[in-house]
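Regression test attached.
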Amino acid sequence: MKLSEKELEIIEILEKDARTPIDVLAKMIDLPVEETEALVRKLEEAKVIVQYTALIDWRKADGREGVTAMIDVKVTPKRGVGFDEVAERIYRFPEVKSVYLMSGAYDLSVVIEGRSMAEIAQFVSEKLSTLDSVISTTTHFILKKYKHDGIVFDQGDQDRRIVVSP
Amino acid sequence: MKPQTRKTYVSETVAGLKPSGIRRFFDLASSMDGVISLGVGEPDFVTSWSIREASILSLEQGYTSYTPNAGLLELRQEIAAYLRRKFHVDYCPETEILVTVGASQAIDLALRAVLNPGDEVIIVEPSFVAYEPLVVLAGGKPVAVQTSGADQFQLHPMQLEQAVTERTKAVIICSPNNPTGTVLSRKELEALARVAEAHDLLVIADEIYAELTYEGEYTSMAAVSGMRGRTILISGFSKGFAMTGWRLGFAAAPEDILQAMLKIHQYAMMCAPTMAQYGALEALRSGERDVAEMRSSYRRRRNYFVASLNEIGLPCHLPGGAFYAFPSIKPTGLTSEQFAERLLIEEKVAVVPGSVFGPSGEGYIRCSYASSLEQLQEAIKRMKRFLARL
Ligand SMILES: Cc1ncc(COP(=O)(O)O)c(C=O)c1O
């Protein structure tokens, strides 16, 4: 889908801050509020804007820190359906946050979030490894998130400038 | 024992300089907590990491000694390539480019290199606060030309013409302008160029905000036909590359003028800081994407902020460049000093009174929109409340 200049501006702004008020957004792209609203709706309907989510630093919620693991999965693709069918069987599990087909040493990169290491270990041994076409899995636990989706966690974003300057 | 008195050693010239009006507002605003500052003349971005990293690497590798007086040759070559690529002007890196300590030093050198005592320099008002004192310090005589908000602070060729006397040596033109944000189009520059040619004037073109131009292609004065030979092009890294604290700028000019500037520079400064020069090299080589991103961020905030100013009753033209809005506060009946001071004390929003930039800035305030969108929204809310109370 070919997006107009204004539509591109909208998604760039909303990608950085999905909560930008519509009247502010309208002024930023220099369009009337109603037209801006219509464009946003159109982008939502076309699934260009897939969803509005919040990036949460779960470490700050006591007892809910959770565990994230990245799992390298090697599979034998099935004739006719290739990797897609295996990928789908994996991404249907709600604890799976993302699945990518990769080039290189393994085939699928799977990101899992669980409440504990045990929960993830259980998922891998019971759900993932037992899939027909899965040959092997290598699980890497994430120890600390510094930056996620372009956002730096705990960034000291104070303004260091002096108050008035030429 | 003799009484502890002494004569004042300070020169009459310096004693005669007005302290900057910006200074007073800085003192007032910094003594308060919770101030939203629209008073800053600098980007709210931190310098791109790749630039910082390149500078750190230069330190790790031990590049801590002087560079050539004119700056690293590599950097001058990169500046020449940049000027060619961006503005279609050709300068010889060996003889026509000088790396300076900020655009500030380049302006100072330009004036000191060309002025004889009493030479007049035309300054377009409202103007950047340093021009007038720097002309005076260089022994020249500043001559102000006032532009007006009624036509977006454009400088008309007629006005320039009228300000010229037989003592006029140069005119300083700043586009995009601090504080008005006004950008001169190619057509307007051409008209001014004809006046400069007719009266054999030198143009000191302060193009420090060239990277922050929001509509159309930027035209440099040096690129206007016939002007390369009578222009000192001044720019730098502070604004476009978010490198204010690095103190790095440059000048490009015909060889005779540039070599005169270099002569002063080599005695007064030796060279610009070495690690900053390595950072600047990286800025020119790989900074384009970051600059483009910062530019579009400023443009969106400008659109929001200027539309909101107009909405709350502070009429403001749409500035074509830099990151300043310069709205009129005339509807309030206050002077710009009174307005800025009361807004600061009553609502904790710091802006700079337009009168600081010369008499033609009276009736206006300078608001920098190089602040986060949340801060701008809050500032508008407070200003609206303030206006309702007047
Ligand atoms: C018009 C203008 N010229 C020059 C400068 C100085 O720039 P630098 O930081 O490169 O010395 C400024 C800074 O505010 C400016 O606004």
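Expected vs. actual: identical. The pocket of pyridoxal-5'-phosphate is lined by residues A 166; B 41, 102-104, 128, 174, 178, 206, 208, 236, 238, 244, 249 (CB under 6 Å).
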